[in-house]
Amino acid sequence: MKEFNLIEHFFKQKSGTRKDVVIGIGDDAAVTHIPQGQALVTTTDTLLSGVHFLPNASPHSIAQKAVAVNLSDLAAMGAEPAWISLSLSAPDVDEEWLTEFSRGLQDQIEYYSIQLIGGDTVQGPLAITITAQGFVPYEQAITRSGAKPGDLVYVTGTLGDAGLGLAIAKNEVDQVIEKPLSQVNRDFLLKRLNYPTPRLLTGTQLRRIANSCIDLSDGLISDIKHILKMSACGATLDLEKLPLSQALVNSVDEETALKYALSAGDDYELLFTVSEEQKGNLETTLASANIQVTCIGHLNGNVGNLELKKNNLPYQNNVQGYQHF
Amino acid sequence: MKEFNLIEHFFKQKSGTRKDVVIGIGDDAAVTHIPQGQALVTTTDTLLSGVHFLPNASPHSIAQKAVAVNLSDLAAMGAEPAWISLSLSAPDVDEEWLTEFSRGLQDQIEYYSIQLIGGDTVQGPLAITITAQGFVPYEQAITRSGAKPGDLVYVTGTLGDAGLGLAIAKNEVDQVIEKPLSQVNRDFLLKRLNYPTPRLLTGTQLRRIANSCIDLSDGLISDIKHILKMSACGATLDLEKLPLSQALVNSVDEETALKYALSAGDDYELLFTVSEEQKGNLETTLASANIQVTCIGHLNGNVGNLELKKNNLPYQNNVQGYQHF
């Protein structure tokens, strides 16, 4: 089956039906319309087998995650998603694999009301590159560079679940888990790894409220440093406040849980900063949404310094090189 | 060197300076503004080492080609290019390679006044995915589906050069070349392979004139079939009219030259169709541009049939299966 047929057969039929798509899959390029007053927001992320997902991951979860990590970038800008393009590199035309993969893609397309507007398929090592496009009203995009000393630091959801999920998926649980792992917890942690949830609603709600925002893809410590660098701030994090799931807390000791929450990647929660004055506004705005948001520290003017405290005492974690950059 | 630094170091400095880019490389996503009255045009193409370029191709040419093939898709829609995103998969951080690659990218960025707005780098087999975005005025995009029976079929430039260029690059010239290959011709043919020229100016000039357009990436016969299929037409091509370069004609016999012109890929010329009524308009519009355009046949109502004639006689080429689909 040739490339053209591959795209047509597996991806065109259920690629979505947005009214702002004038020309979708099947021409030299897609043509779409942006609403007046909205800026275009674009992001690209590649997932490579063996690097970003395990070779034995289900094609459904691979597709879902490839879309989710891109939508998470849009969420971090306060944007709403509209269209995706797919470049799929696959070693062969495995119809079963492609059927499951396209089902994962379609589930995301339907759930987020987005549309697949084009792409490319090549024969090569398994890799998925998605470009996601969305909108944000003019001058309302939330950046990494707008944070101010004094801002409160918040995160959505819980941290570290995907990190333990990865250890489970790689059968490395014996090394980290000291308590019996229940099926419920196991399922929850694997779901957090394989089916991350882009915090799109929260992202749009943070427009005009948050001074800065980033999505947590590489781990809390790595990612907050981007904000500190681009906003020329320092930060103090209060580790006893880190939101940890019951599944994580019930499966590993406290030290290990903190390690995952601080340095494991793939959480795809949002980290954002809000001035003291906007705190009330934030709480009112988020009250209607059923998304957990936790204040985990604050920013200061100590440029480039990341201070970790636990119950007001300096915290020495056993992962080197994370405290400063 | 980590991914973040890789992008920062090699690609950010000379990524372009367009005024419509509000946020470029370095945040979760790029934010850009589309001019009023313009639709967004988006395309994605992946180039894989060993498939789309030879493993020993120069990094400069790989970058140039990766951009060019995407801009060629925009040209085929009648769009002007604005922004590109890059996903680079490379086996290691080879500074010399990356320097040359980024130089190729920057040359294209400057030449076409586009901007690199984001991307991703992963460690893996050498592959380049570029997403190109541009604009076209509302309702002026040129599609594959607008062709009508009676339309004249045109192509830009000359055909088949990249095909012979590939044979030269692969050291397969002994099999096809019967005449001595001069250095000038060799250089020309290799340049046509490695440095294709997206026909952007012609594309924009064809708005409101051409009924349909496609870029020739897979070869004339393969690509015209997309137009025939999507426009429900047939076509007769007059092979004696095919525009062939002196370099091609001087290097191989007539039969071989036609074979390359008909079925070799990578030309990245435009094929477009124009009604008889618009012929004068086309000639006037293109007169000022120094781009060769040749009428090579016409469309008819014989849906799905591609007829090849040479000097008014049916042409039997020795490549099977190309006459019909």
Architecture overview:
Two copies of one chain form a homodimer. The first copy, chain A, contains eleven helices and 13 strands. Chain A is α+β, with helices and mostly antiparallel strands and 325 residues long. The first copy, chain A, has two domains: 3-137, PurM-like, N-terminal domain (60s Ribosomal Protein L30, Chain: A, 2-Layer Sandwich), CATH 3.30.1330.10; 152-314, Alpha-Beta Complex (Phosphoribosyl-aminoimidazole Synthetase, Chain A, domain 2), CATH 3.90.650.10. In chain A, strands 8-10-7-11-9-12-13 form a seven-stranded mixed beta sheet, with helices on both faces. In chain A, a hairpin with a 6-residue loop joins β1 (21-23) and β2. In chain A, α4 (161-169) crosses α6 (183-194). The radius of gyration of chain A is 20 Å and the shape is globular. Chain A starts with a helix and ends in an 11-residue tail after the last strand. Chains A and B meet through β2, β3, α2, β4 and β5 of A and β2, β3, α2, β4 and β5 of B. Chains A, B: Residues 148-301 form the PurM-like C-terminal domain. Chains A, B: Mg(2+) 1 binds at residues 44-45, 120. Chains A, B: Mg(2+) 3 binds at residues 28, 73, 215.
The greatest interface between two protein chains, and residues involved on each side, is: A-B, 58 and 58 residues
| Helicity level of chain A | 25-40%
The N- to C-terminal Cα distance of chain A equals 50 Å
Biggest β-sheet description of chain A: 7 strands, mixed
Enumerate how many helices of chain A there are, as a single number.
11
Oligomeric form = homodimer
What's the CATH topology name of the largest domain in chain A?
Phosphoribosyl-aminoimidazole Synthetase, Chain A, domain 2
Which CATH architecture of the largest domain in chain A would you pick? Alpha-Beta Complex
Q: What is the overall pLDDT average of chain A?
A: 92
Function (chains A, B): Catalyzes the ATP-dependent phosphorylation of thiamine-monophosphate (TMP) to form thiamine-pyrophosphate (TPP), the active form of vitamin B1.
Pathway (chains A, B): Cofactor biosynthesis; thiamine diphosphate biosynthesis; thiamine diphosphate from thiamine phosphate: step 1/1
EC number (chains A, B): 2.7.4.16
Pfam family, one (chains A, B): AIRS_C
